[in-house]
Amino acid sequence: MRIVSKLDPDTYDEIRELVGNGSYRDIDQFIQVAVDNQLRIEKDEESMELSDGGTKAAQAEQSETTSSESVWGYSVPENIPIADPYETDREDTLLFSQYYRFFPLKFVLLELAKVTADHGGAVELSTFRGHIEERVASLRDELVQWEEENDVKKQNRKSTGLPKTDVKNPEYSMKRFLDQYVGKIRKSDLKPNGMGDDLALIAFQPLDEDRCLVQLSPAGRQLVTYTNPILASGPNNTTISSEEAGFIVTHIYETLPTEFGFMEEVYELLEEYEGDSYTKHLDECREYLVSVPGFDDDPSENRLRSHTAGTLSRMVELGLVNRGGKRGVYVADTPPSEFAN
Description:
Elements: H1 9-20, H2 27-47, H3 56-67, H4 103-119, E1 123-124, H5 125-149, H6 170-182, E2 184-186, E3 191-193, H7 195-198, E4 202-206, E5 212-216, H8 218-224, H9 229-233, H10 242-255, H11 257-272, H12 282-289, H13 301-317, E6 321-323, E7 330-332
Antiparallel strand pairs: 1-5, 2-3, 4-5, 6-7
């Protein structure tokens, strides 16, 4: 079936440039990738229902607090409450392709440390989501302003992963951010879902369909003790410090062995086919991914491209690989195995 859609000239030119660079076979493939990615998000949203995002009164109080505080500055509270992460088998867990960065999660972890330390224990997920909705707006606005003033290219933006305002549905963008980086509870089985739970950095304690308590796990508390460059001193810094990166890679090795294995697979491909776009070697990625329980048995090229691109984006932030001079080209830098105990 053919669908006719109007695109503004700038958008069309950007798509043609991507096709010309070899990132996509043709314009139809680009559109199919975009549609597949959005459908995957929508299906995930339909299967996950989440509770209300906190009371208006609580959000108003948080807004007053936010306005009186500086965005930059890193302080770790004393006596951070912790609990064991939600008990589940994470051996074959692969991180969602659209978890592009660890920086947004680090922001959430620090805020959770502060809120639970002030509260003296775990807090309700709905209340914490409301808190983050208020706090992240200031962080995002500061980063976006800096990016615009310094004409920062898209691939180098520090605000990647944070909720957007320059979209048709900012509310949906915020909800997706909260779902991915704060987390949510699936009402069908009360199982938590989100990057913090996948990595066992946030401890979820579901009570019923509408209530869940959250606090940091021991690993989450340890990660918070490493100062984040941007949160401490502003946007003219890296999104993740070398100490944070080292801890995260080692933690993935210990907690998500299958995810770590795919990172190694991708790294070895970059070494073997230096200078090639990763999209030329998706068959090798396919072989690894189809062996993972729960992954598609017969994934499309678009599915493989999306998942591998998400992994590469995180590996760039961690300093394991660097972006090459052409789109789709990455340069191996530090093998993940160096962080394996």
